[in-house]
Write a structure and sequence with these properties.
This protein is α+β, with helices and mostly antiparallel strands. It has 2 domains: 241 residues, FAD/NAD(P)-binding domain, CATH 3.50.50; 122 residues, Translation factors (Elongation Factor Tu (Ef-tu), domain 3). Helix content is 28%, strand content 25%. It is built from 10 helices and 22 strands. The strands form 6 sheets. A 7-stranded antiparallel β-sheet has the order 18-17-14-15-16-13-19. A 5-stranded parallel β-sheet has the order 7-2-1-11-21, with helices on one face. Strands 3-6-5 form a 3-stranded antiparallel β-sheet. The protein starts with a strand and ends with a helix.
Length: 378
């Protein structure tokens, strides 16, 4: 019987362990935190957005988009739903294609994994941070106060985002010791920072808006969704999506009234002395009026073309995922290391990140399946 160790008890690690244990392998999950699935329990704003019905490779960033596409073809969103429902529960899409548990509780998804792994008698060991990984005919995993051997290892310890969940980037060193490299790392799905003076009086206001990211004359992103103003910038679902494209020096251009044309808006404002009542939320209307005055044309421009230069993002501590990681080109089709047979990767540690909307968890589940398939053949 193969002995396989999964390093990391997040979404990818837990899913990989279920696949492996169901197939008859002896699996041990080593998690550095006090319990598994903590980040999974917070996903989708606590509601558990586990995948998306539109899971094409076009929604991902990677050094090898074609390999991402082939991976998704082997284990896509329908496979994820079947896999999750095989453990219990019902999972349904919303109008935007985001798939949630019917109970809208992310912590319950974590409970499904914990219950299934308990039923399968997998070994879950928490409070263990693997410090060294080596190979001398079998894998030797070492940590403070202990060690163990394995026939195969799946490294699913995450990236650098959300270090409060234990993903501080230290696990990259385990891969680097086998000759792997890292692409540049940066936060993704993260709040964007702007000049606080430009958002003064807007903190806490949430709107359904259209947003463009402009880089000089080039538009690098456009979309529609929630924009939430903070004390020093913007957040919300739409901003998280935009953050995968935006960088310091870009300009966010926000249309607070995307369903109304400029001509109609200007006519309304001219006829009603620049009143934004019943046009935009009152708090936003007051702030825009203070900025532009009551001149109809200027005020309409503030509503339809509100511009915020980007100063940067709010860092890994506030990010949902990591952009960058171990290049896919350093793995085979089952995400096995090209430098060390028996070493596999799954989840965020790889150079694959998706836009906001369930895509990153889908990659976690896809990569977990591929890694499990490969590890079972070792």
């Amino acid at each position: 019987m193969n002995t396989i160790v999964v390093i990391g008890g997040g979404a990818a690690g837990l899913a990989c362990a279920v696949h492996l244990q169901r197939s008859g392998a002896h699996v041990t999950v080593l998690e550095r935190g006090e319990r598994v699935g903590r980040k999974l329990a917070a996903t989708g704003n606590g509601q558990g957005n586990v995948t998306n019905v539109d899971c094409s490779a076009a929604n991902y960033f990677s050094d090898d988009p074609a390999k991402v596409g082939r991976a998704l073809a082997r284990f896509g969103h329908e496979d994820t739903v079947r896999f999750l429902e095989s453990m219990g529960g019902i999972f349904l899409p919303d109008v935007r294609g985001r798939v949630y548990p019917a109970g809208r509780q992310a912590s319950a998804v974590t409970d499904l994994f914990r219950g299934e792994l308990s039923r399968l008698h997998a070994d879950i060991c928490c409070g263990i941070q693997v410090r060294k990984l080596s190979y001398d005919g079998s894998f030797l995993l070492e940590w403070e106060g202990g060690h163990m051997r394995a026939d195969a290892v799946v490294l699913a310890a995450g990236g650098k985002a959300a270090p409060n969940f234990g993903t501080d980037g230290s696990a990259y060193s385990l891969a680097l010791s086998f000759g792997h490299t890292l692409t540049p790392l940066s936060p993704a799905l993260v709040r964007l920072r702007c000049d606080p003076a430009l958002v003064k009086g807007l903190k806490g206001i949430r709107v359904d808006a259209a947003l463009e990211v402009l880089r000089g004359e080039k538009r690098v992103f456009e979309g529609r969704g929630d924009v939430l103003f903070t004390e020093n910038g913007v957040s919300g679902d739409l901003v998280f999506r935009a953050s995968s494209y935006a960088r310091a020096g870009d300009v966010l251009q926000i249309d607070f009234l995307p369903d109304v044309g400029m001509e109609k808006l200007q006519d309304t404002l001219v006829r009603h002395a620049g009143s934004l009542l019943c046009v935009v939320p009152n708090g936003l209307g007051r702030a825009l009026t203070r900025r532009a005055g009551e001149d109809g044309a200027d005020l309409a421009g503030s509503v339809k073309r509100f511009r915020l230069p980007v100063k940067g993002d709010c860092g890994f501590a506030n990010a949902q995922v990591t952009k960058g990681g171990i290049p896919l080109c350093e793995t085979d089709e089952n995400l096995q290391s090209v430098f060390q047979k028996g070493l596999f990767f799954a989840g965020e540690i790889l150079n694959v990140d998706g836009v906001c909307g369930g895509y990153n968890l889908q990659w976690a589940f896809t990569s977990a399946y591929l890694a499990a398939e490969g590890a079972l053949s070792c």
